[in-house]
Design goal:
With 995 residues, the chain is α/β, with parallel strands linked by helices. The termini are far apart.
C-alpha cells in the first residue's frame, strides 16, 4: 500500500453522537456519522446479514481481501451461518474506492454515492444499495477511502454485530443472533483526528516472552528461539486494526522484528499496518539487530562494533542504509525514526552536543533521499523526545519541518511537553504515552494500573494543544492492558466524542461488548473503581515508603508500607480492595459459563489478585508491627501473609491452566512482590523486577515475615490507634472533637502470651465511653472510645482510661475539645487540622472543570480551558474554614504530579492565600527532573501526588482559603491545613466536617 503523508488537521469536523443513534452530517449529503456499529440492528432493517455472501475483488489490497474473510468468520461466530464469497441475490460488497473494480463500478454507475468519504484518510462508508449489479437485488456495501478505511469499515461491522476486538486475545464469545440487520442510509464513523495511532509491545519478559514462543512456535533467527514470529504478529496486527489503530512498534527485549521471522514485514504489509521502531531504534532497524552482530570489536560493516556515531560513523551509516533499503525493497509502509540514543534505552554515549545530533539527523535524511530517490519529506519520519532527548529541543535544536516531533510523557502518564502554537510544523507533533514501564522509581508491569480519568486528562491536553500527528502507547505485553489500550485508540480517533463526563458510558460500552448487556453497568462500575484505587499507588510499590529527611532529601524504605496505621489508613484501603473483590466475585458467580474465562482475563484476575495483594501486604506489615510489640497475634498475621502468597500463585495458575483450556499457560509469570530485595537479586532490586541473569524469579515475601516465641504466661499489652511506630507504648489517644471525621479512636488490648486473660477498662470521667469495657483476651480485643458530648465540658477537657488485666494496668490519656458552636462556618478544625477535598469549594472564580475520579481519594479541579489564556487574572477556588486558634499554619496542597508541559513557561505554579493576603506562588516542579528522572520526580510519580506546603499566620475564627491556578494544567485534589495536630498519612486525613 502506498499512503502519502498528509495532514488531517484541516479535515471537516464531525458531530458528536449518542450511542446507537445515526445523525445527519452537517454537509447535508445524506452521510450519517455514527458510533461504531450503530447502524446494526437485531430486530429489523434494510438488509439481513444472515447468510449473505461477503464479496471482494481480488484486485483490491491484500489487507482488504483478508478482512473480507475475517468478516465472514465473524458473521458465522454470531449467527452460526457461514457466508459465501460469490455474488448472490443479496450480497455484502467490500472494497476500496479507486482500487476495487467492484466499488468503482458502483460509483461510476451512480449506484453508490461516496461524497464525504472519497479522498479522506482512513474513512469508511457503510450503505445499503438497491439493485447495485445485474442479478443482485440488494447489497450492503462497505467501501473505504483507502485500503485501511475499508478494513476499518469491515471491522466496524464486526464490532456492531457483537464481535469484541479482543475475541481471540481474551476468549470473548459473541452473543448468538438469529437476526442481524443493517439499517438504511449511508453511514460512516468519520475521519480519525490523529493520523497514526498505535501501540508499542515492550517490557515483554517474562510474561509475553514466555508465552508467545511456546504458543506460536520459536522465532526463526538461528540462536534466538525467543523471537516473535509472523503468526504471533498476525494476531497483534488483527487486534490493532479491529481497534482502528494503524501503527506498531514491535517488541524489542532481545527481539529483532526483521530477523525473528523474515515474514514479519511482509505480513505487516499484507495486513495494511504501518511499521515503526521505538525511540531508541533509528532508520527502521531495531537495536537488537545491531547487538546480535556487533561484538568483540567488530561489526558486519567493517567497523569497531561500537554503537557510537563519533567513533564508528561509517559502520553506523551503513547499518542505517540497510534498514531503509530493506523498507524500499520489501515495499512495506513505515514511519522512520530519526536521531540516536545509547544502546539499551540510555543516553547517547557520545555526549549530548547539539551539533553532533544535528549531524546525525542530517546524515539519516541524506540516506533516506539516496535510497528512496525522493526528497526526504516524502518519507514519513519522527523524532521522539524521550527522556534526555527533550533536552536537545529545549536547548534549541529543531529538525526539518516535515518531521513529526513526538512529545512524550514521563513514563508515568504525565505529559512532559505540549506543542507551541508559535511553532507550527507541517509534520505536526505526536505523543508517546505509557501504560507499562521499566525504570526509575520502579517497574510497573504486572496488571493494568491506568486510571481512565487521568488518561483522559492527558490525552485531552494533547488534543487541545493540537497534537494530532502520531500517537503510540507503550502497552507492555498488550494482554493485561486491554482497557487503556482500547480507550487510547478510541480517543485518538474522535476526541470530541469522549468527554470526561462520558467515560462511564465508554466503560459500559466496553463491558457490554465483552460480557453482555445484563452485566454491563455493574462491570463498568467495578472497572471504574478499580482504576481509581490503582491510581493511589502501583502494586509493585506497596512495600516502599518514601519520606523526606530533615534536610529535604528523599528517603526510600523498601521494607515499610506506604500507608499508615494511624487513622486506620492501612485497614481502610485494604478493606476497599476487599470490597471491590467481593463485588467482582458476585458478578462472576452470576455470569454464564461461556463468558467466565473472558471475565477472568479482562476483569476478575486483576481485581482479585490486586485485592489479595493488598490483604497480603496488610497481614505482612501488621505481622512486623505485632512482632515488634511482642503480640501473640504476630504469628497469625505471618500465616495470613504466607497464605496470601500462595493465593497469588494459585490465581496465576488458574490463569495459565484453567482458563481457555490452558491457552495462556506461562503468561501470568510477572513478579510483583519481591521488589527491593537487594540480598536476593542485587543492587538493581529497588527498581528492577526480581531477576537473575535476565531471567525473572518467582516471588517471595519481602520483607520477610517474623515469627516470635510466645510465652505460656499471659501478658497485658495496650496499643492505641496512633501508635504508628508499633511500640505498644503510646501515652494517649488522639484528641476528640464533636467535629471530627477521623475513624473512631480505639485502644487494642492484646496478649503477649498464650494463656487468655480477663481485662477491664475504666474511665476517669463520666463523659468518656467505651464499647467493650470488659471481656476476655485470647489474642487481642479492640475497644472503641467515644465522648458523650452532652456531658463533656465546653472547651478543652482531660480524662483517662485505665486498662487492667493479667495482673497489670496501663493508663491512656484522653483529651476532648468542644468548641462553642456559635460562629462556626465552613470546614471546621478538629484534631489540629482541616482537610478539604478540592471539589467542595464555596466559590469558583474564572473557568473551572471538575475531573471526577482523577484524584487518589476523589475528584480533582482544574482551571478551564487547559490552554489557559487568563494572563494575570488567575482563576481561583475559595473555601470557607473555621480555625480554633491563632498562629502559624501550614497548608498542604495535594496536586496531580504534572510536569512543566506548557510551551511558554518553565514551571507549573499555583498560589495560596487566606482572606485578602497576597497569594504565595509555588512551583510544584521545583527540584524535580522529568528527563533525568531524579528522586524528587520519582517521589511525586511513585506517590502519584505532588505535595507542597505554604505557611501562613492567621487568627482564630472564620477565614477564606483561596487556591489560585497560576498556570494551566494544574490539577488540585486536596488541601489540608495543619494547625499543629496533623500526623503523617499517605492519603491525608478524611475530609473535615462542613457546617
Amino acid at each position: 500500500m502506498s499512503v502519502r503523508r498528509r495532514t488531517v488537521l484541516g479535515a471537516a469536523a464531525v458531530p458528536v453522537l449518542s450511542p446507537g443513534i445515526a445523525w445527519p452530517a452537517a454537509a447535508g449529503d445524506g452521510l450519517r456519522v455514527t458510533d461504531p456499529g450503530a447502524y446494526i440492528s437485531f430486530t429489523g432493517g434494510a438488509f439481513s446479514l444472515v447468510g449473505a455472501p461477503v464479496v471482494v475483488s481480488a484486485q483490491d489490497h491484500p489487507g482488504v481481501v483478508r478482512v473480507a474473510g475475517d468478516l465472514r468468520a465473524d458473521i458465522e461466530r454470531v449467527t452460526g451461518v457461514r457466508p459465501g464469497s460469490t455474488v448472490a441475490r443479496h450480497a455484502v460488497l467490500v472494497g476500496t474506492i479507486g482500487r476495487s473494480p467492484l466499488i468503482d463500478g458502483l460509483v461510476a454507475s451512480g449506484k453508490l454515492d461516496v461524497t464525504g468519504v472519497r479522498g479522506r484518510w482512513e474513512t469508511s462508508l457503510q450503505a445499503v444499495v438497491e439493485h447495485p449489479l445485474p442479478g443482485v437485488e440488494k447489497a450492503f456495501v462497505i467501501a473505504g477511502s483507502d485500503p485501511r478505511g475499508t478494513i476499518f469499515g469491515a471491522y466496524d461491522v464486526s464490532y456492531g454485530i457483537g464481535v469484541s476486538p479482543w475475541y481471540w486475545w481474551d476468549d470473548v464469545p459473541p452473543v448468538h443472533r438469529d437476526r442481524v440487520w443493517v439499517l438504511p442510509g449511508r453511514h460512516t464513523q468519520g475521519t480519525p483526528t490523529v493520523k497514526h495511532r498505535g501501540f508499542f509491545i515492550n517490557d515483554e519478559n517474562p510474561a509475553l516472552g514466555t508465552w508467545a514462543p511456546a504458543h506460536f512456535g520459536p522465532g526463526k533467527a538461528p540462536g534466538y528461539p525467543g523471537g516473535f514470529n509472523a503468526d504471533f504478529y498476525a494476531r497483534v496486527f488483527e487486534v490493532l486494526l479491529r481497534l482502528k489503530g494503524n501503527y506498531l512498534w514491535p517488541a524489542v527485549w532481545g527481539r529483532a522484528f526483521a530477523e525473528d521471522d523474515p515474514e514479519n514485514h511482509r505480513r505487516a504489509a499484507e495486513y495494511g499496518v504501518v511499521m515503526g521502531t521505538s525511540h531508541e531504534a533509528p532508520m527502521m532497524r531495531g537495536i537488537e539487530e545491531w547487538n546480535r552482530h556487533a561484538a568483540n570489536g567488530t561489526d558486519p560493516y567493517g567497523g569497531t562494533g561500537e554503537w557510537s556515531y563519533l567513533r564508528n560513523p561509517t559502520a553506523i551509516r551503513a547499518y542505517w542504509r540497510a534498514g531503509i533499503q530493506r523498507m524500499v525493497d520489501q515495499g512495506f509502509e513505515g514511519v522512520v525514526t530519526l536521531g540516536m540514543r545509547g544502546n539499551g534505552d540510555t543516553g547517547l554515549p557520545d555526549g549530548d552536543g547539539i551539533e553532533l545530533m544535528r549531524e546525525i539527523i542530517a546524515a539519516q535524511r541524506g540516506i533516506i533521499e539516496e535510497v528512496t530517490g525522493r526528497p526526504a519529506a516524502e518519507t514519513p519520519q519522527v523524532w521522539t523526545l524521550y527522556k534526555e532527548v527533550q533536552r536537545y529541543w529545549d536547548r534549541g535544536l529543531r529538525v526539518p519541518d516535515d518531521v513529526t516531533v513526538v512529545l512524550t510523557d514521563d513514563n508515568w502518564g504525565n505529559i512532559r511537553r505540549h506543542p507551541s502554537p508559535a511553532e507550527p510544523r507541517s509534520g505536526g507533533h505526536g505523543l508517546y504515552y505509557h501504560f507499562d514501564y521499566v525504570g526509575a522509581g520502579r517497574n510497573y508491569k504486572w496488571v493494568d494500573t491506568a486510571n481512565l480519568r487521568n488518561v483522559w486528562d492527558q490525552l485531552h491536553q494533547a488534543h487541545a494543544y493540537g497534537n494530532h500527528g502520531l500517537w503510540v502507547a507503550n502497552v507492555g505485553d498488550l494482554k493485561g492492558n486491554e482497557l487503556p489500550t482500547q480507550f487510547f485508540l478510541d480517543y485518538a480517533w474522535n476526541p470530541e466524542r469522549w468527554d470526561i463526563d462520558r467515560l462511564g458510558e465508554w466503560e459500559r460500552r466496553y463491558a457490554r461488548q465483552n460480557f453482555g448487556e445484563e452485566f454491563a453497568r455493574e462491570t463498568a462500575e467495578v472497572l471504574a473503581a478499580y482504576g481509581r484505587l490503582q491510581a493511589r499507588r502501583k502494586p509493585e510499590l506497596l512495600n516502599r515508603r518514601i519520606t523526606l529527611a530533615d534536610g529535604g532529601q528523599v528517603v526510600y524504605d523498601d521494607q515499610q508500607t506506604p500507608f499508615s496505621f494511624e487513622h486506620r489508613e492501612l485497614e481502610r484501603v485494604t478493606e476497599e480492595w476487599r470490597e471491590l473483590g467481593r463485588r467482582a466475585a458476585r458478578i462472576e458467580r452470576r455470569l454464564p459459563a461461556a463468558v467466565r474465562d473472558a471475565w477472568f482475563e479482562l476483569v476478575g484476575y486483576e481485581v482479585t489478585a490486586t485485592a489479595n495483594l493488598y490483604a497480603l501486604r496488610e497481614a505482612e506489615f501488621t505481622n512486623l508491627r505485632y512482632a515488634r510489640e511482642g503480640r501473640a497475634a504476630a504469628n497469625d498475621r505471618a500465616a495470613e501473609a504466607e497464605q496470601g502468597l500462595l493465593r497469588d500463585f494459585a490465581l496465576a495458575e488458574r490463569f495459565g491452566s484453567a482458563v481457555a483450556g490452558g491457552k495462556w499457560r506461562g503468561f501470568q509469570t510477572q513478579p510483583h512482590i519481591d521488589y527491593g530485595d537487594v540480598d536476593r537479586y542485587g543492587p538493581n532490586a529497588p527498581w528492577q523486577q526480581p531477576e537473575k541473569d535476565n531471567v525473572a524469579l518467582p516471588d517471595v515475601l519481602f520483607p520477610a515475615v517474623r515469627r516470635i516465641e510466645v510465652p505460656e504466661a499471659a501478658g497485658l499489652g495496650v496499643s492505641v490507634d496512633e501508635d504508628g511506630d508499633g511500640d505498644g507504648d503510646a501515652p494517649g489517644l488522639p484528641s476528640f472533637s464533636p467535629y471530627q471525621t477521623r475513624p473512631q479512636q480505639y485502644v487494642e488490648v492484646f496478649n503477649r502470651g498464650r494463656t487468655p486473660f480477663d481485662y477491664r477498662v475504666e474511665t476517669s470521667v463520666p463523659w468518656l465511653r467505651v464499647d467493650r469495657p470488659r471481656g476476655r483476651v485470647a489474642r487481642q480485643v479492640r475497644v472503641e472510645v467515644r465522648v458523650d458530648w452532652s456531658r463533656a465540658p465546653a472547651g478543652r477537657s482531660l480524662g483517662s482510661l485505665t486498662v487492667s488485666g493479667a495482673g497489670e494496668s496501663v493508663t491512656v490519656g484522653c483529651v476532648a475539645e468542644q468548641p462553642s458552636a456559635r460562629g462556626l462556618r465552613g470546614f471546621v478544625e478538629a484534631g489540629g487540622y482541616v482537610a478539604i477535598d478540592a471539589e467542595h469549594h464555596d466559590r469558583a472564580v474564572g473557568g473551572w472543570r471538575r475531573l471526577e475520579g482523577i484524584g487518589r481519594t476523589g475528584a480533582g479541579m482544574t482551571a478551564w480551558p487547559v490552554t489557559g489564556g487568563w494572563g494575570d487574572a488567575w482563576p481561583r477556588l475559595e473555601y470557607e474554614v473555621t480555625l480554633l486558634s491563632a498562629g502559624e499554619v501550614t497548608v498542604w496542597a495535594y496536586l496531580s504530579p504534572r510536569n512543566p508541559a506548557l510551551p511558554t513557561t518553565t514551571g507549573l505554579r499555583y498560589a495560596l492565600s487566606f482572606d485578602d493576603d497576597r497569594p504565595q506562588p509555588v512551583d510544584i516542579t521545583a527540584g524535580a527532573d522529568d528527563g533525568l528522572l531524579n528522586v524528587v520526580w520519582a517521589r511525586n510519580t511513585s506517590d502519584n501526588v505532588n505535595r507542597t506546603a505554604t505557611r501562613h499566620t492567621v487568627g482564630s475564627g472564620v477565614h477564606r482559603l483561596k487556591f489560585w491556578a497560576v498556570d494551566p494544567t494544574v490539577v488540585v485534589q486536596r488541601l489540608v491545613i495543619d494547625t499543629g495536630g496533623l500526623t503523617p498519612t499517605y492519603l491525608g486525613p478524611l475530609e473535615s466536617r462542613r457546617v
